[in-house]
Every structure is written in structure tokens, then in C-alpha cells.
Amino acid sequence: MSTQSLLTVLSFLAFFAVCECRKTNVTIVNDLGTDLTFHCKSKDNDLGSHFLSPNFAWYFDFERNVFDTTLFFCKFIWGNEEHWFDVVNQKQDHCGKFSFLCIYKIRVGGPCLLDELTRKNYQCYPWNPRKLNSKRGI
């Protein structure tokens, strides 16, 4: 590799290392009409348990990794219901790969993600299958 190519690659990596362009904000909004308890974590970061009254929100920020492997999953509990969902999965990009602002409304049928471009429409997703959750130990 030539010196010029090496400098270009190193410059790109240095820019990516300090750039805010890798930071993503995830917001969870309780749209259930009842109290919500949830616990979010990744392989390396346990964000703890949280409680939200109806229409209240909680958020966290993270930096996407360059290998596209960032994964945050949450366990949501209300009434007699208990469900899981990957709020960040860089491999799927409903939040994480190209998104910088991910606002989820938690609803009975599953979480609904605000369209980052239009800021109007929500795309709703089904809850994770229980089989996947038992593999993760949550």
C-alpha cells in the first residue's frame, strides 16, 4: 500500500473515530395507556431497568461500531404481558445502521418506529419470538 493510500485510510478512520456521525439516539415512548417497565442491554452494556408512566419517554445514546454488529435489546413488561424487541440491530437497520434518531412508541402489538425522514409515519414491528429471547438470557 502506498503512503498516500495509507494516509487516506488513516484520515478516514480518524474522522470516523471522533465524528458525531456514528452517534444514534434511541427514545422509548410508553404508548400503552398503562405503566410500563423495561430493561435494555447489549452484549457489553446493561442499561438497567426503567419505569415509564403512559406518554412518558426515556432515551439513550450509543455509537455504532464500524463492524455493523451493535445490538441492543429490551424486555418490556406491563400487566400480564412480557415481550422482547431489538431496539437497535445494525444488521437489520430498523434502527442503527443508517439511522441517527430512533423513536419507538411501545404498543400492545409491538414497537412502532418513527420514520426518520418524514417524521410523521410509524413503522410497526412484531415482538421478538420467545425462542430468540431465551438464547440471550433475558
Verbal overview:
The chain is an alpha+beta fold and 138 residues long. The protein has helices at 3-18, 130-136; strands at 23-30, 36-41, 46-52, 57-63, 71-78, 81-89, 101-107, 110-114, 122-124. The protein has a five-stranded mixed β-sheet with strand order 4-1-7-8-9, with no helix packed on it. Strands 3-2-5-6 form a four-stranded antiparallel β-sheet, with no helix packed on it. A hairpin with a 7-residue loop joins β8 (110-114) and β9 (122-124). The termini are far apart.
Total strand segments: 9
Overall pLDDT level: 82
Low-confidence stretches: 12-20
Approximately what portion of the residues adopt beta-strand conformation?
35-45%
Q: Please, how many helices?
A: 2
| Major beta sheet summary | 5 strands, mixed
Structural class estimated from helices and strands: alpha+beta
Cα Rg = 17 Å
| Largest beta sheet: strand ordering | 4-1-7-8-9
**Could you spell the SSE succession in H and E letters?**
HEEEEEEEEEH
Shape: globular
Give the CA-CA distance, first to last residue: 46 Å
Helix content: 10-25%
